[in-house]
Amino acid sequence: MALIWRDFINRPHISNLEMNEQLRLYNIENKRLIDQRRQREFLIKERETSEMYSVTSAVASSGAAGDIGPVDSFTNTYSMAFDGVDDYIDCGQSSAILPATFTVSCWVNVSAFGSWDTIIGCDRYSPSSGWKLWYDGANIKFSYGGVGSTEFAVSGNMVTGTWYQLIVVCDGAGNSAIFLDGVSKGTGFMTMTYSALIRFIIGARNANGGGLPATDSFNGKIDEVAIWNTDQTANIAEIYGGGSPVDLNNLTTAPAPTAWWRMGDDASWNGSDWTLTDQGSGGNNGTSDSMGEEDY
Fold first, then answer.
1. Is pLDDT above 90 for 167?
2. pTM of whole model > 0.70?
3. Can you tell me the distance from the alpha carbon of 131 to that of 141, in angstroms, rounded to the nearest whole number?
């Protein structure tokens, strides 16, 4: 099946390119898919004519032979849109996604900059605990809790309508860092603790006392949110993927994430809410609030 043009140009890092560049990349990707289909047809024919097909199929599926490679490939088609008013996704309170040592990764595309707009909030404002990744104007900030909190910022690195990848690392010993598109942009010192009420929320932060209803909503699109309960500083470049989302469950050196919400890909709509299936190892599904089917 040929690649659908509409789906292709809505991908992160494709939608904001010039038409000529979109067309060039579309032709490359479409040719790759056609070649894969022909390869798959060839392997099926081999199965019908040779008892050796089982060996060929195993090699193709594992990617062990460089000339054949894997038949299936990772795709990233969708993201979730947040209105900056009351949209958010609640991923629950599991200790697996609220660790003291962690690496969190996401892709963001801001529609409009505001104040206190939260990308990911795992925080309690008062008494202060947990953390949030947010922006104030075009300044990205990572903060511990709320009142009198420790924070550090990356100034003036983002513009609206453009996809960026953000990674935050806390090593459990008090050292923290922000990476923008694979490049370190700031460090700070904070030791992470969480109150019992804190939830992992995408697109907003916890209520001032912790928990729901969420507040300070994000205005724009968020994609491919993942968290590891380990320090992945050594694997930042691999997680960044050179500028495009990658299959986080099949990286060369980095382990699979503890939780991974694909933000549209592998999501389901029940008529009132989205369920974002956790593609990591933790089974922590996310549920939307105040979001419509059109936010997919």
1. yes
2. yes
3. 10
- Measured distance CA(288)–CA(87) in Å, rounded: 7
- Architecture of the domain defined by 80-295: Sandwich (2.60)
Tokens 């490939």, located at residue: 73
Q: Where exactly are the structural domains of the chain?
A: 5-62, 80-295
In this prediction, residue 156 carries a pLDDT of 65
Give CA torsion, residues 248, 176, 100, 287, to 10 deg.
-50
Going by their DSSP bridges, the two strands 139-144 and 129-136 should be labelled as: antiparallel
Residues recorded for the chain: 296
Q: How far apart are CA 32 and CA 112, in angstroms?
A: 36
Arithmetic mean of pLDDT, 44-68: 41
